[in-house]
Amino acid sequence: MNRFSEDLHRYTDTTFSSLHVRNYRLYYTGQVISTSGTFMQSIAQDWLVLKLTGSGTALGMVTALQYLPILLLGSYGGLIADRFPKRKILYITQSIAGILALILGVLVAANLVQLWTVYALALCLGINTAFDMPARQTIVVELVGETQLKNAVTLYSTLVNLSRIIGPAIAGIVIATFGLALCFFFNGLSYAAVVIMLLRIDGRQLNLAAPAARQGRGARRFEICAG
Question: Nearest Cα to 41, choosing from 93, 105, 91, 99?
Answer without folding.
Answer: 105
